[in-house]
Amino acid sequence: RDASPLLWRLVSSLPGELNSVVARIKNKILPNGELDDRASPELSRIRQDISHLRSQITRSLESLMRKHDEAIQDALVTVRNDRFVIPVRADHRGRIQGVAHGFSSSGATIFVEPMETIDANNQFQALKETEEREIARILFELSDSLRQQLPALEMAAQIVEELDFLNAKSTFLEKFQCVVPEISTNTESDGLELIEARHPLLAESLRASGGSVVPVSFALNHKNTGMVISGANAGGKTVVLKTAGLLSLMALSGLPVPARSARFPFYRSILADIGDHQSLAANLSTFTSHVGNISRMLDICEAPALVMLDEVGTGTDPEEGSALGVAVVDHFRRSCNGHVLATTHYSGLKMYAANEEGVLNASVEFDEKTLQPTYRLIVGVAGASSGLEIARRFGIPPTVIDAAANLVKDSTLQATDYLRRIKRESEDVIALRVALEEERGAVAEKFASLDVQAGRRERERQKEFDVALRSVIDNFEHRASELVREIEDRTDRIKAERESHTHAAELKRQAKQAAQAQSLPSEGAAPTRSVRVVRDGQLMNESRGREHVSEESSTTEYKPVAQHRPLRVGDRVRLRSFGSIGIVDQLKGDEVEVRVNALRFREKIENLELVEEVASTRADRGKFAALRTSGTSEVHLKATDAQPNSELNVIGRTTDEAVDAVDKFLDEASLASLSQVRIVHGHGTGALRRAIGALLQDHPHVMRFSPAPPNQGGTGATVVELRQ
Q: 129-188, pLDDT tens digit by residue?
């Protein structure tokens, strides 16, 4: 509907009431035109009886042939005169009693209907006649039902005819490489323009013999309304006229035309005088037949017109014929507002075309080297008839040709030489133009090649720039990753700094309150409590809390629990790896999640020690206990690798081992503030990939994950983006 709205509108206008008729016919008539056995119950019964009787007769005859094998020519049941017969050898005619229905062409075989099957054959014929009567009855019923839909059927026939016409045009367009012509109705721009036009009948004829048509190109308009075509005999002048006339009629009939491009005026008359119509019976000579045709054309010509005159003025005295031809062409141009195409051998018409404004000279090319026409139309140059050369090619003796050449007037020879010189100059100009076109094409190709090279160099430069930019970005990302790894977790670091500042401010406030309570004005400002940052057992600084503050004040002392028991949420434990005290937040199998201030760690149970606060420390703790202890707080930071690993390989591990390793790896990567990691699990059976995918699906550190790119392992690895 959207692609071909006009066709859709045409098809959709088919009468809907025909659907029931089509369904009724479709159920009764087969595609081959025969009635279906199901067309009626009676027809089905009759055909079943015919089939059974045919089988019965065939079996009977086959049995009879086996019984009289020596008398049978070929063991084959056949039909003669609509009756089943068997071939009996003529010399054994008396062996089988029956009715003869004919002889073979050699007379050696008699086709006999045995007495045993005469009754069965009679029944078979009766059933066939009954079948024919039933078929006639069914067809009469269908005809009556169709007669009631006669208006709809007539409309459908018109639509089908239109569709068939459109299909024929489409097929013709594809077969002859046609175009849809432009039809002009503007009198100022009315013009006949044919580019590489071909006569379809000539093209079809040559195609059968493996040849092809030489296309024709020319243009007529309101300035140039006429064209006189000259040149050698049998060179294709008349083909130009026929091509122009036939394609004009096709275009005005709504048909595509075989051409690369075509434009036509809306002609009201298309007139032609082509061929020799002399006739003894009609008392017509060549000249009188032409003159009679031209007279009728002058009477019926209606502007705008296309007029085609083949060999105008021929058949009479050359001077008079030439003058008449000029007058006729000029009259059709001026009085009928027509486009005139005329062929001639007369010099007068050639001179008229050369001197008259609005009339073009044209010629069909003739190769003087091979004495063969090329059938190419050259517009702008008159052509020589080359009658002597044509005669020589067709076998006229040289002595006759030489004698004729001596009889030709000098002026004629000079005119012929002049035309040949013009033709050669025209050919030189055409060759020069072709060379210039080829040179321009070469320059354009060279320019395109340079453009391609410039584009390639630009792409290479862009590629180098991208590589350099990528290197800079990679270096930047590497340095940024190092800084992130040094800081560990930026967010947690900021929290630790804030807690250190808060803790120092609280110590200042408590010192000031203690000084005021003890009335010690001489000690006006208590010394500021410092914070010592210890990493990997080394003192990093002694400022006011640049790192995470430890879970408990340095004044609080802990000792291992005397009686060992299982860990519970809320228990205080010491991390054996770096001695910090933390609180158990979560238990998961043999691993425990421990909170040390703002930091969270996941450790094996064997790496933790259950502790409790020393009683004396608990008793000494008071409002100002912090002031009675050392003036420095220590912050212990967990040691980390200098370069946290962003890839984990679990190939070769069991599913449980791989899941545990990935879980711990994600914790460490999150603590190292990595934004992306890669887990290599291989292809194998896919068990590791599925188990790891199930873990990543609900893992708190994972933002998203996907298979690695092809150059990083494809489905054998998983890329994980971590929450920041």
A: 999 999 999 999 888 888 888 888 888 888 888 888 888 999 999 999 999 999 887 655
**Region of 472 on the Ramachandran plot (φ > 0 left; ψ -120 to 50 alpha; else beta):** alpha
How far, CA to CA in Å, does 84 sit from each of 105, 126, 209, 526? 19, 14, 51, 139
175: tokens are 């077969």
Where does residue 287 fall: left (phi above 0), alpha (psi -120 to 50 degrees), or beta otherwise?
alpha
Mean pLDDT of 222-229: 90
Peptide bond into 710 cis (omega under 30): no
429-480 residue pLDDT tens? 777 878 888 888 888 888 888 888 888 888 888 888 878 877 877 777 777 6
Q: What are phi and psi of 236, to 5 degrees?
A: 110, 15
Strands 530-535 and 581-588: unpaired
3-state secondary structure 557-585: CEEECCCCCCCCCCCEEEECCCCCEEEEE
Contacts 24+ apart (CB under 8 A), 251-256: 251/181, 251/183, 252/183, 254/169, 255/169, 255/172, 256/169, 256/172, 256/173, 256/178, 256/179, 256/180, 256/181
Q: Are 310 and 343 in contact (CB under 8 A)?
A: yes
Answer positive or negative: Cα dihedral of 645, 646, 652, 655.
positive
CA distances from 182 to 186, 199, 250, 307, 418 (A): 12, 18, 12, 20, 39
Tokens at 318, concatenated: 């050359």
Counting every residue, how long is the chain? Answer: 724
Task: Map 316-344 to HEC letters.
Answer: CCHHHHHHHHHHHHHHHHHHCCEEEEEEC
Contact assessment for residue 531 and residue 632, using Cβ atoms and an 8 Å cutoff: yes
Residue 669 has pLDDT above 50, yes or no: yes
Question: Do the Cβ atoms of 109 and 96 come closer than 8 Å?
Answer: no
Instruction: List the 530-535 sheet strands across, edge first.
Output: 538-541, 530-535, 632-637
In the prediction, which pLDDT does 511 show? 52
Helices and strands (DSSP H and E) totals, the chain: 18, 27
The second-level CATH assignment, the architecture, of 647-722 is 2-Layer Sandwich (3.30)
Contacts 24+ apart (CB under 8 A), 104-108: 104/73, 108/73
Residue ranges of domains in the chain: 18-150, 182-408, 647-722
Q: For the stretch 261-297, what's the b/e string if a residue is b when 16 or more beta carbons lie within 10 angstroms of its beta carbon?
A: ebbbbebeebbbbbeeeeeeeeebeebbbbbebbeeb
Give the residue among 283, 291, 339 at the shortest CA–CA distance from 314.
Answer: 291
Mean pLDDT, the chain, whole residue set: 78
Residue type at 448 in one-letter notation: A
Q: Determine contact, residues 392/375, Cβ cutoff 8 Å.
A: no
Separation CA 306–CA 274 (nearest Å): 13
Which residue shows structure tokens 């056995």? 37
Q: What is the pLDDT of residue 615?
A: 64
Give pTM, 2 decimals. 0.48
Bridge partner list, 170:
none
Q: Which CATH number fits domain 18-150: 1.20.1250.20, 1.10.1420.10, 1.20.120.790, 3.40.1160.10?
A: 1.10.1420.10
Is 379:227 a contact under the CB 8 Å cutoff? yes
- The CATH class given to the 182-408 domain equals alpha beta
Let me know if the fold of 18-150 is the same as that of 182-408: no
pLDDT value, residue 420: 63
Spatial neighbors of 168 by CB under 8 A, at least 6 apart, are none
